[in-house]
Design goal:
By secondary structure, the protein is mainly beta. It has one helix at 3-19; strands at 39-42, 45-50, 60-66, 77-83, 110-115, 122-128, 135-142, 149-154, 161-167, 173-181, 187-195, 198-199, 208-210, 214-219, 231-239, 243-250, 254-258, 268-273, 277-286, 292-300, 303-305, 312-315, 320-326, 334-340, 347-357, 360-367, 376-381, 386-392, 397-403, 409-411, 413-419, 423-428, 433-436, 439-448, 452-458, 467-471, 478-481.
């Protein structure tokens, strides 16, 4: 094998380790037949970013880091989550504080905490055995104020493109998009807002500077002249990369994080609407040049049903559409399955879910998500209050659910469940025996069709059903790389 071929393999392997996914095959027939199947190997490095949790002095935030045990990932690794470096007024960079989290080994959760309005955004890296499937959960409890509630979010990898259907600039809402930059150079970001009539004009939403190792919150209402109840936010990065999340706060309904929707697609799944949801709003946006005509179905515990009066949703290209589904679950947990009525046009979607009544209401968001795939994890679970929702929109599937050992003690427990096609299975999450502290739930697809999942965490206070929902997309803990004996000479120039 010549030097060019060796260098190419090294470059692909390095790319895979950093990005979390890469594959390379020779063109058909180039080596006398189809290229050999690439090997799947654990990623060697992961980066996760957590937004600044709150501006409330009453905020109490907990963090949980967890990496599932992965074969072939080696026996050594290191990870660290620290505050994003802040700049002083004269531009000098200060040193980050001591780590908020310092994971030591796969299979065991590690916790940290912060309090008050000064808690910063966090930047984390994991290498070696701690990198594949690494997840960090940020959960903030705020008992009063406009941001009252349980605000939960998975810390995410940096990227360059994000869609947030379900945001708002209405008078009762205070929505901020948080932009966090993990790199040594500044990132340049554009924010586009789309309402029911299309794009909103703005003179200040382009070229937003995010300094190195820092986080910038942008109040959405400052980017538009007129309030809009239902908005889609599109964040694009001109230079660099960022993590992005929207913190949405309502005067009466509390607050939570709105994560980015899955990539635009012709069919989407939004898993885990609580059985006692009192109001559900679907917000969708057609990202392409064509309108999206969408069939709306609820995957109930007994099969797919069509909500009365909401059989379809027409989403015009470049415009945000919203529909109130009311108490669509009727006392049984469910998931929304959105499919094209005829031709498929790409769109994004999210749900705003409300529990409770009167002054005791609380809100959370469920974005469209990727399937569980090989493996997905939700960290930060407590002894009580975790509900796991599993939906198989097509074929039936079998999944394996592992409750890890506890952060302060306890023995891992594994159970297997069958999810019938077209249904949602909502179950009280398994708990480690002898649990002390918090733990992680890892879901693996064993057989059958694709499975989508979410975890609802309930932390009620003073009669208010405070809760948050996190989806469980594939953790992309392995990457596809060429086998050592694969002939890549055909790719030389």
């Amino acid at each position: 094998m010549n030097r060019t071929t060796v260098s190419l393999i090294a470059a692909v392997t390095a790319l895979a380790a950093v990005t979390g996914f890469a594959s390379l095959t020779a063109p058909d027939g180039a080596d006398g037949g189809a290229a050999k199947a690439a090997a799947r190997l654990p990623v060697e490095r992961s980066t996760l970013l957590c937004p600044a949790p709150s501006t409330s002095d009453l905020a109490e935030t907990s963090y949980t880091s967890f990496t599932p045990e992965v074969k072939g990932s080696g026996s050594t690794g290191k990870a660290e989550v620290t505050a994003a470096t802040r700049e002083s007024k004269d531009g000098a960079k200060g040193k980050a504080d001591k780590p908020v989290l310092s994971p030591k080994e796969p299979g065991k959760p590690v916790t940290g905490e912060s309090s008050g309005a000064e808690a910063p955004a966090l930047v984390g890296t994991a290498e070696g055995s701690l990198a594949p499937g690494w997840t960090v959960q940020q959960t903030t409890e705020i008992p009063a104020g406009i941001t009252r509630g349980v605000l939960g979010v998975d810390c995410t990898a940096p990227d360059t493109d994000f869609w947030f259907p379900g945001a708002s600039t209405a008078e009762e809402r205070s929505d901020y998009v948080h932009l966090t930059n993990p790199d040594d150079s500044a990132a340049v970001v554009d924010i586009e807002l789309y309402g029911k009539g299309g794009a909103l004009k703005s003179d200040v939403a382009e070229g937003i500077q995010v300094p190195p190792h820092s986080s910038v919150p942008v109040l959405l209402s400052t980017l538009a002249d007129e309030p809009q109840t239902n908005l889609t936010v599109h964040v694009t990065v001109r230079s660099g990369r960022v993590a992005a999340a929207v913190q949405a706060a309502d005067d009466k309904l509390g607050a939570d994080w709105l994560p980015a929707s899955a990539d635009p697609a012709g069919s989407l799944v939004l898993p885990g609407i609580p059985k006692d949801a009192t109001a559900v709003r679907l917000v969708a946006f057609a990202t392409g040049e064509d309108d999206a005509d969408v069939k709306v179905q609820l995957a109930s515990p007994n099969g797919l049903i069509t909500p009365a009066g909401h059989e379809t949703l027409h989403v015009k290209s470049g415009m945000t559409a919203a529909v109130d589904l009311g108490d669509v679950t009727k006392g049984e947990a469910g998931s929304l399955v959105l499919t094209p009525t005829e031709d498929s046009a790409p769109f994004v979607a999210a749900l705003r879910v409300v529990r409770g009544k009167g002054s005791n209401q609380e809100t959370a968001f469920i974005p469209a998500t990727r399937p569980v795939g090989a493996r997905a994890t939700a960290a930060g679970n407590r002894a009580k209050g975790s509900t796991l929702s599993l939906v198989a929109p097509g074929k039936s599937a079998k999944v394996r659910v592992t409750a890890s050992e506890g952060s302060e003690g306890g023995t891992a427990v594994t159970k297997t469940y069958t999810v019938k096609g077209g249904t949602t299975t909502a179950l009280q999450a398994p708990v480690p025996s002898g649990l002390k502290g918090t733990y992680a739930l890892t879901v693996e697809t064993v057989s059958g069709g694709p499975v989508y999942a979410s975890r609802m965490l309930e932390l009620p206070q003073d009669g208010i059903p405070m809760f948050t929902v996190q989806t469980l997309p594939d953790d992309r803990g392995t990457v596809s790389v060429p086998t050592a004996d694969q002939d890549l000479s055909v790719l030389q120039k």
